[in-house]
From TrEMBL:
Domain of life, per lineage: Bacteria
UniProt xrefs under InterPro entries: Thiolase-like
Residues making up the signal peptide according to the UniProt record: none
Gene3D superfamilies: 3.40.47.10
Name this protein carries in UniProt: Thiolase domain-containing protein
Length: 346
């Protein structure tokens, strides 16, 4: 790819609440987001030249369930359409690359999931190695407990660090202190219930527009200046669980350190991950971490990573920050990491 990528901006975002159990179909979540995006931009459906979604058929329990979600997008008139069996953040990556090709100028990106229709701890255990790990039934929470224990044993973090990350996800009016969180019973030792993001139902979506067209639409465009994602071995015994080389490489590839990072939304599904990501991504005290509360405050499975992008875009568009970083992960113990860098108008 060219070292001078085509300018691409996020011109509109939408995010549903994180429902404990959404009563309607997943397509209804998608439709809510799409209708909001079209209304805010004034674009017609036929002007969305490329549509891509991220979701999980395993959670839906039916083959090719993502096809039904197109009912929420509108399948007419026909446009280029794609899907990734991943969080919507990876759908964003494909859309950004597609816009770099130059044959389309607009793209709709959606991430959606109904965690309540399945058992996430069982479903996502299938992401592990199928020969040596999956037969053990090692689920993501149990593996996160192993990662937390490795951090504690290495001296790189304390349980107070975990509680501090969890505290930031609580409403300001909660009045719960770190000391009180540390008194809670263990749920998956050394993790407590507040250290684990509860799976939820929800959707996130945004519209990407390339070039000067982005400035012609209502609102302030937020430019997606860099994106990269990397993967590590799915054999946990071959990795240092207290570090994340893939996140470090993704940040470098996305150009995260080419300027100051005012805010960072990190996909911290288990509180110990914040300690690892802060170090791997090179985030200092000047960067505000997860001003939204992060996934510990709301974890719409398969949209959680894309929601991080939405949260950064909204704060930049509101003038609360000039440059931000959004992070998404997939797989056990931060196996895959994606980093997007976003900037406001100069």
């Amino acid at each position: 790819m060219s070292t001078n990528p085509r300018p691409v901006a996020v011109v509109a975002t939408s995010l549903t609440p994180a429902y404990t159990a959404f009563e309607g179909p997943e397509a209804a979540l998608v439709m809510t987001c799409v209708n909001e995006l079209l209304e805010s931009t004034g674009l017609r459906r036929e002007e969305l030249e490329f549509t891509i979604a991220g979701s999980c058929d395993y959670l839906g329990g039916t083959p090719f369930s993502f096809v039904m979600n197109l009912e929420g997008v509108g399948a007419w008139p026909p446009v280029y359409e794609s899907h990734v069996e991943m969080d919507g953040a990876w759908a964003l990556s494909e859309a950004w690359l597609r816009l770099q090709c130059g044959d389309v100028d607009t793209a709709l990106v959606v991430g959606s999931g109904r965690a309540s229709s399945g058992r996430p701890r069982e479903v996502f255990a299938l992401q592990t190695d199928p020969y040596t790990m999956a037969p053990l039934g090692a689920d993501p929470v149990s593996l996160a407990g192993l990662q937390a224990r490795a951090l504690l044993d290495s001296g790189k973090a304390t349980e107070a660090d975990f509680a501090a990350a969890a505290a930031r996800a609580l409403p300001a009016t909660s009045g719960v202190s770190i000391e009180e969180l540390l008194k809670a019973d263990y749920w998956c030792d050394p993790l407590r219930a507040h250290d684990v993001a509860a799976p939820a139902d929800g959707a996130a979506a945004l519209i990407l527009v390339a070039g000067d067209r982005a400035r012609e639409l209502p609102g302030e465009p937020v430019w997606l200046t860099g994106m990269d994602h990397r993967i590590e071995s799915h054999h946990l015994g071959l990795r240092d669980l207290t570090d994340s080389p893939s996140a470090r490489l993704a940040a470098k590839g996305a150009g995260a350190h080419d300027g100051p990072v005012d805010i960072a939304e990190l996909m911290v599904v288990h509180s110990p991950e914040e300690t690892i990501l802060r170090t791997a991504l090179g985030l200092g005290g000047e960067t505000v971490i997860n001003p939204s509360g992060g996934p510990l405050a709301g974890n719409p499975v398969m949209a959680t990573g894309l929601a991080r992008v939405v949260e950064v875009v909204r704060r930049i568009a509101a003038g609360e920050a000039r440059r931000g970083l959004a992070h998404a992960s997939s797989g056990p113990c931060l196996q895959q990491n994606l980093v997007a860098v976003l900037e406001g108008e100069h």
